Amino acid sequence: MSPKNWTQVTGPLVVYVVTTTGNLLITGFSWMDQHPHTQVFFLWNLSFLELLLMPAVVPKMLPVISFSGCLTQLFFFHFVGGIKIFLLTVMAYDRYVAISQPLRYMLIMNRTVCGLLVAASWVGGFIHSIAQVGLTVQLPFCGPDKLDNFYCDVPQLIKLACTDTFVLELLMVSNNGLVTLMCFLVLLGSYTALLVMLRSHSREGRSKALSTCASHIAVVTLIFVPCVYIYARPFRTFPMDKVVSVLYTMVTPMLNPAIYTLRNKEVIMAMKKLWRRQKDLLGPLEH
Question: Among 106, 227, 241, 260, which residue's Cβ finds the most Cβ atoms within 10 Å?
Answer without folding.
Answer: 260
